[in-house]
Amino acid sequence: MVVRASYHKELNTLEDDVVRMGKMAGDAVKASVIALQERDLTTSKKIIKDDKKINTLRYDIEERCLLLIATQQPMARDLRTIAALLSIITDLERIGDHAEGNARISLLIGDKPLIKQTVGLSKMAAQGISMLERCLVAFKERDKETAKIICDEDDIVDDLYDKDYREILDIMINDTSLIQEGTYMTWAGHNLERVADRVTNIAERVVFMVTGKMEELNVSKY
Amino acid sequence: MVENKTVFNIEELKAWYGTKQVLKGISLKVQANKVTALIGPSGCGKSTFLRCLNRMNDFIRDFRHEGSILLNDQDLYSSDIDPMDIRRQVGMVFQRPNPFPKSIFDNIAYGLRIYGEKNKTVLAGIVEESLKKAALWKEVKDNLKQNALTLSGGQQQRLCIARAIAINPEVILFDEPCSSLDPIATTKIEELIEELKDDYSVVIVTHNMQQAARCSDYTGFFMLGDLIEFDDTKKIFTTPSNKLTEDYITGRFG
Questions:
Q1: Least confident of A138-142, B4-8, B36-40, B144-148
Q2: Residue B111: inside a domain, yes or no?
Q3: Is pLDDT at B56 greater than 90 in this prediction?
Q4: A85 FRET partner, CA 20 to 30 A, in A69, A141, B201, B216?
Q5: For residue B254, which residues of chain A lie inside 8 Å, CB to CB?
Q6: Is the pLDDT of residue A1 over 50?
Q7: What range does the domain containing B190 cover?
Q8: Residue B29: beta bridge partners?
Q9: Residue A3 CB-density burial (10 A; 0-12 exposed, 13-18 middle, 19+ buried)
């Protein structure tokens, strides 16, 4: 048997593309929250359009993973990596969708001002993106300890969402004319809460890549 | 690893060809009615190990060994053991099909006749049963007098399996049984191996890792005369414990 250089080179390239896809999804989340806060509808529209690029990359990676399975019969850690890649790209694509969702909420709110300060959204986005960025590093470095820590951090985002949601509820109770915008804002918060859940899924796959064990490391409250 | 009945218990098996040591202390249990696959790079000792299991190495000059091989608690290399008797209990199928230049019937009946069976009805019954077990009966039942060398490669290999089965062994050893066969014939042999374990214990040496993954219950990885890792096949091919195993099966060296 010869050392399978081209096969392993393609596997490395796939991993790099997954990291690239993760960065695209993270950037989209960040931009979607800023656009929502700054009422920048032009950027919101661009985020919706650019989500297709994330989706396209996901299908490209998926096809190349299937090709490696079909042609290279991956085994052991390579097999676990490819299985993890197929799962991770689904979560990254959904993170992109959550960013797109927030961009659409921004368009739904239109030219109206936001009903409240959005510190909670900023904090959720910052925490979720930080989790994602560190998770992508842990993925490349096969760092299961960091991945487990990231799973635990989902609770931080859950608590932030909880607080934000209650504040919006109070606003809507006090002024029923704000129910529609208030509901939109809860959706935006929920999208960011889901981003952290998706990162948790990815972190679980990083642990699987290293240990071969599939386990749920944090069950989200929502 | 769940242990069932052990058919072979090998302990600290060392082997030499002249001064060259080819097995460096292999300990391994072969479980009954399971398929055990042995994989590893060329020259790792897996075929030598396999050939120790029915004393085929006795034919090689300068071969010597240390350690013990127990077949159902009988010491395979004990002085009171007849190697012919061992080879009746432990059949072997080789890399290239090697039918005798005789009829299909006579190929299967050959071993039985050597062991003294003369009753034609008994012979015919065992020939039929063996060919059925080797999934060859339907293809040859009307041509039993035909020379076995006229069969295709895949058919010849199944004939050799039928020949091994005919003398009712307990274990069948396969030494790269599909390396000279096309993919369809290979699939048939692999399916057959899966069926054979109902009645026999199987040990297979293969260079084809996918074959080991597909048709074995346990896998041993050999390298440079050592057994590096032995475990459930699904564990070896998904989460092997040893880095050398992992590097070998993922093609990082070879």
A1: B4-8
A2: no
A3: yes
A4: B216
A5: 1-3
A6: no
A7: 6-94+169-249
A8: B9
A9: exposed
What pLDDT band is residue B254 in, cutting at 50, 70 and 90? low
User: How far apart, in whole angstroms, are the C-alpha atoms of residue B166 and residue B44?
Assistant: 32
Interface test with A, best of B216, B223, B239 (most A CBs within 10 A): B239
Most confidently predicted of A111-120, B187-196, B217-226: B217-226
How far is the C-alpha of A216 from the C-alpha of B214, rounded, in Å? 29
For chain B, the residue count is: 254
Number of domains in chain B: 1
| B71 inside domain | yes
Residue B240 lies in a domain: yes
Asked if A75 lies within 8 A of B41 by C-beta distance, the reply is no
B140-160 pLDDT, tens digit each: 999 999 999 999 999 999 999
> Which pLDDT does position A30 carry in this prediction?
98
The CATH number of residue B13's host domain is 3.40.50.300
Distance CA A112, CA B37 (A): 70
Chain B residues with beta carbon closer than 8 angstroms to that of A73: 209-210
Q: Classify residue B162: in a domain, yes or no.
A: no
Q: Which residues contact B182 (CB under 8 A, 6 or more apart)?
A: B153, B154
CA distance A83 to chain B (A): 11
What value does the mean pLDDT of chain B take?
94
The per-residue pLDDT for A3 is 65
Residues on chain A touching B245 (C-beta within 8 angstroms) = 76
Cα of B233 to nearest chain A Cα, Å = 11
**Which domains are delineated in chain A?**
5-211 (1.20.58.220)
Q: Which of chain A's residues have a Cβ under 8 Å away from the Cβ of B246?
A: 76-77
